[in-house]
Amino acid sequence: MKVIFLDIDGVLVTRNSVKYQYQNFPDDTSIRFGKGAVKNLNKLIRRTKAKIVISSTWRLFHSLEDLQNIFKKQGIRGKIISTTSIEKAPVEIDIPRGQKITAWLVQHPEVEKYVIIDDDVQADCIQFHPNNCVETSYKFGFSSEEKLNDALEILNK
How many domains does the chain have? Predict the structure, then answer.
């Protein structure tokens, strides 16, 4: 099985998508994912058959079912199979995201390949998974062809 560990803010929700929403739908309080990021995520899923594991802090505020519904409404065709752990800890002793991903992988030996898509891999992931990270920018998220190709290369090598 192939897995995409997915952050949401800075990957699917970008500065540009928030700006577009504010300018075009000022009274709509729901969050809209960036169209380019959704398009690229759908391409990645279609080309690799990868499943999604949410590593974003959104996992702390939304159930798995809620996340699946949000993704469906946003046009994402992939299947969310899980989230990384949701234990709460004080900020000063919070476990790094990369370590939570490692723990999830230990519990799921069926995973053959994985990619981590996040806008802050330096702080959280790269020390644990240096060859599996695709870092996005908060401005553009996962909307560039380069980021899509980086993720495809990791999952298809």
Answer: 1
Close Cβ partners of 68 (under 8 Å, ≥ 6 residues apart): 79, 80
- Burial string for 96-112 (b: 16+ CB within 10 Å, else e) reads ebbbbbbebbeeeeebe
Give me the pLDDT at residue 48, please.
98
Q: Please, are residues 123 and 13 in contact by the beta-carbon 8 Å criterion? A: no
- Cα–Cα distance between 38 and 36 in angstroms, integer? 5
Q: What is residue 119's DSSP assignment?
A: S
- Residue 80's DSSP bridge partners are 52
pLDDT of residue 28: 47
Please report the beta strands in 11-156, taking only residues with DSSP state E, as ranges in sequence order. Answer: 51-54, 80-83, 113-118, 133-135
User: What CATH number does residue 124 fall under?
Assistant: 3.40.50.1000
Q: Is the pTM of this model over 0.85?
A: yes
